[in-house]
Amino acid sequence: MKIDNMSPITIGILGGGQLARMTAAAGYKLGLRIAILDPESDSPAQQLANIKVVASLDDLSGLENIARISDLLTLENEFVNAPLLEHIESMGVHIYPTSRTVSLIQDKLFQKQSLEANGIDVPAFIEVSSQKDILEAGRRFGWPLMLKVRRNGYDGRGNELINGANEIPKSWTKLGGETRGLMVERFIRFKKELAVMVARSSNGEAVTYPVVETVQKDHICHIVKAPANVSTAISERAGMMARRAIEAVHGVGIFGLEMFLLDDDSILINEMAPRPHNSGHYTIEACVTSQFENHLRAILGFPLGSASMILPAAVMVNLLGDRSGVSNISGVEKALRIPGVNLHIYGKKLTRPNRKMGHITVLGASVEEALEKAVKAASFISF
Predict the structure, then answer these.
(1) Ramachandran angles phi, psi of 359, nearest 5°
(2) Exposure pattern of 104-119 as b/e (b: 16+ CB <10 Å)?
(3) CA 119 to CA 248: how far, in whole Å?
(4) DSSP assignment, residue 302?
(5) Does position 352 have pLDDT exceeding 70, yes or no?
(6) Residue 69 C-beta-side C-alpha neighbours within 13 Å
(7) Predicted model pTM
(8) pLDDT digits (tens, 9 = 90+) for 98-156
(9) Buried b (16+ CB within 10 A) or exposed e, 213-245
(10) Lowest mean pLDDT among 99-113, 149-163, 302-316, 324-338
């Protein structure tokens, strides 16, 4: 689909969290109108939206409503059931990523099968439908194992590390094995976690952002270092794998690829997300064109912008909640006294431990310089 008439274009976004909020901000820069579908009328993106549709993401009437008032739909997350998206497409409304792409990604088993079928390296995996299957996986792959829910897991939620056969019943129960689809992966011992953002247009044009290193804390992305301290050969190989992965699922839009770099310098793709990604937030200030703007350009069929960094290095630090209750932000003035600090607050009314409430990005001549400032600034912020 290619849209040439810019007066007016309404982009409907399914989901109203911080990813939709930052996408909306990029859309207004391009003169777009933004409609948001979310069950909360005061969600981060609803606070900025031209048009609000208050409904859950699985509410068919809500989906049909936003489809009727939008020229094009896109997703903030991969949790909208693919058959619902297919129904909206049958109304003649284009959705990017398409229902076909979402169906291949939202189920992690299908995602891994799609990548493996296209010759892309992933951790060894199998589907499990009983505790006996997990025991067999332990014999096959060795311990520990990673047990995962196939649908709707994120930030470590829906993952259980199983160190031995005696832990199977507890993990099986915790993840709801009797009612939810599960899979097992070989546990990977890696030396770095890498990530790559790729924007791919509806006309086949693609740009690849710098390979970054992500530092996880409690299974949540804590720090992103751009670019990753890896060789040119590894960076090029990671970028090539990312592009091949997007092509394998016929992707249109921005995609985030999480990867493991092993001791022998081989690379495995851990997971992919068909949307803007936490590991790409640094691109707002650090790159010529942010992941959010290039996502919109890609789904509209517009020329993609450069993904080059404007300074040699950047670091992003996530700002996470440390208690439960109403959000009451403190420390902003102290953080902003540090030169070069770019502060993003997502507008979430409630905080809870490890909830993503905002982020800080700092650019610099080196990752070390940017990291020191970003970590210091983040230490001042509390929710």
Answers:
(1) -155, 160
(2) bbbbbbbbbbbbeeee
(3) 10
(4) P
(5) yes
(6) 17
(7) 0.94
(8) 999 999 999 999 999 999 999 999 999 999 999 999 999 999 999 999 999 999 877 66
(9) bbeeeeebbbbbbbbbebeeebbebbbebbbeb
(10) 149-163
